[in-house]
Specification:
globular; zinc ion binding; 8 strands; protease; Aminopeptidase; zinc; alpha/beta
């Protein structure tokens, strides 16, 4: 499968998934996916889950041969775009070890990864309103008249995708108090109205994941609970994930609804996690990328291993 992207992107030797000072756009992401497919054609496959509001493909990367299906997603929030190359780099690391005869954890599981869940928003947060965008005037107004979208978390229609899921959606809308499109915290007119959130929900229901992880920034915290719906094994695994990382904490979160992991725990009664990678103020700077990855990769590895 050839993935549409910026074919001019050429990386030097070493890791395919890299982050430059200029940031990380959907075109770079697609180009890196192409190169991963070329190098690891026997290890991983890529499927289209749907399209974003602006028609960008929503890619799911699958690797592993195990009967147990697990899932990770990233870049649900636009200004947390750094999580996309973090997750894709981990996918590349697993594929490279598998090709070399390692990554034995993939004997037991099949990983479905969606590294760039909000491509329109990620590009908007870095480059501003795209030329010819149908929502150009509205976006400027929703952003308080500013053309600086670096703090923007929502998708291109001003809907916060991590307030889109049908688990306490009405409670979260009331708590947020945001009545219309905005840079963050607007959950939309109804749950799963946005194609990006609907695609994640559809994949989750069809694949029957035994556990899921949604990667965000920042704070080095791991959230594992939702209104006492989580299974007993959820907290011990969160503790192991935190212990594996550098400076991470397992946190029992209250006062939060309508997120992806909230919905997964509520609907399936299986372990679901939100991992807040890195520290600082979003968007985290590219200079921190390597350091964040070193501390995060062991957390993701522990998640793949699962409850013991």
């Amino acid at each position: 499968m050839q993935i549409r992207g910026d074919s001019s992107v050429q990386w030097p030797g070493g890791s395919i998934v890299r982050l430059e000072q200029e940031g990380y756009r959907s075109g770079t992401y697609s180009s890196q996916l192409n190169r991963l497919l070329e190098k690891y054609s026997d290890i991983l496959t890529v499927e289209v889950l749907g399209e974003s509001v602006l028609g960008e493909p929503l890619w799911a990367v699958r690797l592993g041969k195990g009967a147990e299906q697990v899932h990770m997603n990233a870049a649900v929030h636009a200004n947390e775009w750094i999580t996309a190359p973090l997750l894709l780099r981990y996918v590349e690391e697993l594929a490279a070890r598998r090709l070399a005869g390692g990554a034995t954890e993939l004997d037991a599981v099949t990983l479905w990864a969606v590294p760039l869940s909000n491509p329109d928003g990620a590009d908007l947060a870095q480059d501003g309103i795209p030329p010819g965008c149908a929502w150009a005037e509205q976006l400027a107004a929703w952003n308080g008249g500013s053309r600086d979208f670096r703090r923007w978390k929502a998708n291109i229609r001003g809907v916060d995708l991590n307030d889109q899921f049908p688990a306490g959606w009405e409670l979260e809308r009331e708590r947020r108090g945001v009545a219309g499109p905005a840079p963050q915290d607007y959950g939309g007119p109804h749950p799963l109205c946005e194609p990006e959130a609907a695609a994640l929900a559809r994949l989750t229901r069809e694949a029957g994941f035994s556990r899921v992880l949604s990667l965000h920034t920042q704070g080095k915290e791991i959230y594992w609970n939702y209104r006492d719906c989580e299974p007993r094994e959820a907290e011990p695994l969160a503790a192991r994930m935190a212990a594996a990382g550098e400076g991470y904490q397992s946190v029992k979160l209250t006062g939060s609804d309508a997120g992806y992991k909230d919905w997964f725990i509520h609907e399936f009664r299986r372990p679901g996690y939100t991992v807040e990678a890195g520290e600082g103020v979003n968007p985290l700077p590219p200079e921190q990328y390597d350091e964040i990855y070193r501390g995060l990769a062991p957390v993701l590895a522990e998640f793949i291993q699962g409850p013991r």
